Fold each of these.
Amino acid sequence: MQAEFVQTIGEGWAKPLNRFMNEMELTECLHKKTLTVDGVTHLMSCPITQHCTKEVVDACKDKEFLALIYNGERVAIINKPVFYANRKEEIATRTFGCFETSHPYTARIIQQGDFLVSGESMSFVKKIMWNDGMDQYRLTP
């Protein structure tokens, strides 16, 4: 699980996004650097997605929800999960302007699972704490 993105969405830093991007939102973000929600277009240059493996897809494709676990605790729930292909090369190229495998973020994208997951909505169960001595200073919008 990408805990940073769960925190970003859950605390409101990615408004109006309130769950991981679905395939159409990802495509709009990659091609236009925008996100249109309820007829209003917002700037959104960073794709916010959650990757997973084929094993997760096979195990969860008919489930009503998918729990996201961080440090052994449930932090969020994806309601009515939807899975789609993780177009890694396109995501890396359109986000960073090149497909260089030595680029640290491109390398992270290449290592991801072959699928992305979104859903109808997300419920946030617990605030993510990093336990690094800085949590008390992390404010929310």
Amino acid sequence: MALRINHNIGAINGHRLLTLNDRLMTQSLEKLSSGQRINRASDGPASLIISEQLRAQVASIKQSITNSETAVSMLQTSEAALMEVNQLLTNMRQLAIHASNEGANDKNMLEADQLEVKNSLETVDRITRQAQFGTKKLLDGSTGANGVGTGAGVEFLSATPLTRASAVEGYEVRVFQLGERARLVGKSALTQEMIDRGEQVAISEGGKTMHFISTKGDSAEQVFGKLRAELEGSGLDLRMVVHDDKTVEFVHNQYGSKFDFSVSSSTAGFLSQEALTMQRASSGKDIEGSIGGQFAVGDGRVLTGGAGTRVDGLKVLYTGTKLTDRGAGPDAPSAGRVTVYQNSPIFQVGPNPGQSASVGLLNTNTRNLARGVVNDAGYENLNQIDVRSLKGAQSALVMVDHAMNELNSIRAAMGAFQKNALEANLRQLRVNFTELTNAESVIRDADMAEEIVDFTRNNIMMQSSVAMLAQANQTPNHVLSLLK
């Protein structure tokens, strides 16, 4: 056996192993104290990259859940205000029904009805100004798509979150075909002979019918008066025009190709070309045109921007009555312009860029509701309704019904957005949060049972290494025995 004192190889090996065991012991203590298997990049570079990415996703999903819950709260606040507006509209409709009871109402009663209608309109406008979520106004148009039309007959109606904001000068509106109403013009005048013979008129419109027979001895004016009263009482959405030559024309109140009617008369040529044969009126026409050079769909007098275009969902009403030398195509002269301001709220509902959703809120100002609605009194918006006359009360019913439809449509859109875009997304986000947290835990968290086993082993090895190093340091002492 060789004895050396300059280099104690056994002690050097013992020290090396002691250092190794000390490092392993330190790692075990770190994992047990932190509860994590990956504490620094050196513990697992690839695992660190994956787990850090998962951590970022988990944190982003957690914030997305909060964002979605806040969005739901905002929509519920908006709907609560819309419910109040809808209740006020219901009250106004009831007042218009009461005011239409012309036979029993006097001037004071009508004034009281109009006063209450005016108060309801003012309340709607007050709700419009005051409804807010935090400091954000909800129903004044600042949280939706708004616009303004310029040019004779061009009027902005509405837009959706898909409609892109226009430049300051707006989108150019070109009209190739005017919206028209279905009409039927009689060729022959009403004579006393026809009246005395019992002229029969039958009209069918929208699933409703009317049948009229003239009374012998009545004058033409009496027949026209009774026919007009019968027409109004039957609920047909038609208007009768009597010309100076005692010919009659029937015109549908609504514009567009989907509104039509049929008429017959017992005298050929008075209304129908053949006696006692239903004849369809000349069809109405939908407006044709473009918005901002993009495809637009016509419905009555309303142009709607085509899907997938810059003007997707933009509705423009054109009430012009002439198309002087317009022609079709992109070279047709401009009818006007419409400028769009896009303020629809955008909600970040996902953890990554582009994972957002948007919904537009309605401007419930009474000057913005029920615009472009055909009515006998000529009201341009809900704010103008006046129930102090029969015509005004009947027209107020039409305007209020249209305003209620607008409110119900936006409430339905908000409900669908809340149910499908937010609440369904919330459920998915919570599932993703659970699964991604589990994935990160599998990669990064320590298995405490396994780490305790390793700690026990490393602890024993540490104590053994210390003991063996002490023994190795004693080996050179044998040289002293030789010297003795």
Amino acid sequence: MAVPGWMEKAFYAISDFLFEKLPRPAPTPAQLKTTRLISHRGSYDNHRVYENTLAAFDRVMATGIWGIEFDLRWTADRQPVVFHDADLTRLFAEKTSIGGLSLKAVKARFPMIPTLAEVIQRYGGRMHLMVEIKPHVLPGRHLNEVLSELFSPLQPVTDFHLLSLSPQLFSAVTALPREAMIPIAETNASAVSDLVLQKGYGGMAGHYLLIQNAALKKLTRHHLPVGTGFINSRNCLHREITRGVTWLFSDRAIELQRLISVPRSVK
């Protein structure tokens, strides 16, 4: 039986509260140097600045944060746009689905929603791009032609990764190497870590409570990175860095960025 959304949110909120209060040893300068902070959907309030928009990402880029995470969906005319939800209800109080609108209609009615091309052009090579692909119904040929063309200026793994809660979606993506693909674990971190090794994926991500040390160590032994979210406090940040997590996804990345900056005296 699936856990109700409100119960899951309450569980994570309580966990965040507890982990924020529990003191953790400070990471070493060497550990801080290898930490990669990733802003989850940019810096936004969903009133003046909306998530997954150029304005939200611009705020992040100005601070020198290592990477941004954003979501990929497709319009009715098979154009990739950066938006999280399947429809526009939560952000814009409209029940229309992104997949039911053409790109022209999206831009006319919701001009702040960027295309994938706009995001890559503006931030590619300047910040690491963590692109979460959402479920879609697209011919594999079209999917690969578009992704191959748009990501061609960038280097997989070095400049970007694809993320997904449904690793089966990766099977349709043949234009990009498996090393650039990162499954997101939920309550199945052990199974997903095995899948990463079997399929040759580039690492794993998931909630910090759900990726236990056994799965983390399994991948780090193979020199594969692991990312956890959502790291929104100093103590949780210290916990994840000291246990060997490489990528830290946060809704408060700008506030946390100064905590991972290595002092100038450290070489």
Amino acid sequence: MIDNPRKQAILCLHQQGKSAREISRLLAVSRNTVKKIVQEDKEPKATTPLSHLDEKEELIKATFKSAQGNVVRVKEIIKQEHKIEIPYSTLTQYVRAYDLRQKKRIKGHYHFEPGEEMQHDTSPHKVMIGGTLKTAQCAALIFSYSRLLYVQYYPRFTRFEAKIFLRAALVAMQGACGRCVIDNTNVVLAAGSGADAVIASEMQAFSRMFNFEFYAHAVGDPNRKGRIERPFYYVETNFLTGRRFQSWDDLNAQALNWCENVANAKEKRILGMSPKAAFVMEKNRLIPLPKDIPLIYEHYQRIIDSQGYINFESNRYSAPENLIGTLVDVYKYSDCIEIFYRNVCLGSHERALDQRNARITNKAHHPSIYRRAHRKLACEEERLLLGHDETLDVYLSQIKKHVRGRGVRQFKRLLDLKRTYPSLAFMRAIEQAQLYGLYDMNRLEELVIKFVSGDYFNL
């Protein structure tokens, strides 16, 4: 079989006017082979197996674009809308032959020194929390040299959550790299993109606290932060698969445990060791943490509404009812909010992270609302009177039915009478008062005095 370079040489010599005999002698091939190759070159080329689709070229290309490159949908759309049946294998062959798919670009290779760069990004994941499938924002930070990974989940991801996450990640990793590569997200950027990106002032202040700089890669160049892109697939297919979580705290606790014992402990082929082992060599090259790392918080001001609540993040949190209409300071932390008035803390509430229109109430803030719940509770005086005599117990229960509230004032007066007068006279007065339905403490005392005077004095 004649290879392609010799065929090309035969055709080139033939075009130069060489005879078949001379070409045969120069290239050491038979004259019949030379004549056959020359003859095949002169014959018109046979039509390709896909030539019958040339007249449908515009239709196929337009449908391919509208179907976003899904050949199965191209086949279905052409059959439904144009009544044309084209086999799936023929369509895939056509797509390859005419290069309809976007060609993959050559990926770059990046080399990083220890402590030189870290990469940060987020990705939405479907997570089962408390029996409900929720969309959670997976935030991740990775050191480019050692591939040490840190992952956490949030219901939403704003600049506040970004600062909380990066603070926790850098504290856990015991240092920072000099550069943090991000995509062109408005969570960190205030304007621009790539080399022209303008970092938001509050994120710049945060990065200065840890002595690193944010760096945004060019638009359409996700390979620049390929260190962080790949782990998202690993997290989704390894950590989340088959796991159920009770709460957000449970989810993040398990994520940290997975990073520690699986992702960072597994040996990576490209490193020849685990990220933990590589981090030992990188740790001394990291930028040390500042001595004092302040908590991340945000300050707001709210007015306590007529129902004794402040409206914050689409939820309502209780405040003391005696301050209705007052302007108070609200401090938002990662897991709670605190309410202050004139530098005095009025209370702290746990943040309702993934709720809307929820009402979080501290019963101490609204005691009047819960007064009815305490009406059935016995006061101290009633507890001292109960259990000594069955007749007295019945009389006490009747008093509670005929007075407003818990009858604390009546019970105090009754206890004073019991302690002041003799027991026999007191109980005779109770029996007579119960017989006639007498619940006025002044008249009850008159009855007690009447029995006392008859027994102890000759009047």
